Amino acid sequence: MGRRMPAVAGAFYPSSAESLRMEIENCFQHRIGPGRLPKHVMGERKPPSLISPHAGYIYSGPVAAHSYLQLEDRMRPEVVVVLGPNHYGVGSAVSIYPEGEWITPFGSVKIDEKLALRLAELSDIFTLDEVSHLREHSIEVQIPFLQYVLGGFKLLPICLLDQGLKTCLEVGRCLAEALRDYESFLLVASTDLTHYEPDEIAKEKDSLALEKVRELDIEGLYQVIRENDISMCGYGAVAAVLEASKRLGAKKAEILKYATSGDVTGDRSAVVGYAAVKIELE
Predict the structure, then answer these.
(1) Which of 151, 153, 160, 240 could join 168 via S-S bond, C-beta 3.0 to 4.6 A?
(2) In whole angstroms, how far apart are CA 70 and each of 46, 164, 218, 256, 261?
(3) Which segments in the chain show pLDDT lower than 70?
(4) Counted domains in the chain
């Protein structure tokens, strides 16, 4: 049984439960955040799919909080599937963490082994592999936010080294098929947008990408990234979640918040862009 320990606790977010809770609450209450804490109340509406950034909490946490606020007054998901890019080039092309649990300062989250096996049965594009996940932060930083808002849930992490269009459409297709067996589920795509460009240029480029996200135009997203040299690191995770969401009835996405690291630090010479997005499923 796998037991994935935190790779970036103490760096991207605090390593103690008390400090982590305070940091997350600061993100929700931040001037760039939603301005309030989420209500820990479950409702009857199904959760939307979400897009959330994955930098250190002091930089992107307030934007991420806009995404996770959308989970209040929703059904508790039976499983949360978090897709993120593979920053380190280690492991397989499309890696599902297969079994066991992930550990954060808030405690452990069980892996949905049944869903992992179901996806592997649906397509040989998936590999059941722990190695890809050992150092990767893009999925890890989403988990404490989820624990804070939801409490308990099952998790399925999918790490994408291959972010090609064909691959990510296939990942989305398989997710939509497998998740039809669940009454309630949550899809999360982890991505940052433009990296280390002047604030004005980053915002201009990111607006082009986010317009395609809003329209659920996956091919258009790949085209504007290519034509405008947009250094969006998790575009494949976004593409897979958009494809799955479209197959599950989504018609459009809503951009909840966009900001850059310059909005936090005041240094606008070389920023990273962050967006919070929700996609309602029918």
Answers:
(1) 240
(2) 11, 29, 23, 10, 22
(3) 1
(4) 1
Q: At residue 191, what is the residue type?
A: T
pTM of the model: 0.97
Domain range enclosing 150? 3-279
Instruction: Give the model's pLDDT for residue 42.
Output: 80
Structure tokens at 190: 């982890």
Cα–Cα distances in Å, from 111 out to 54, 153, 212, 220, 266? 21, 9, 32, 33, 39
pLDDT tens digits, 47-59: 999 999 999 999 9
Q: How high is the pLDDT of residue 2?
A: 87
What pLDDT, on the 0 to 100 scale, is given for residue 43? 87
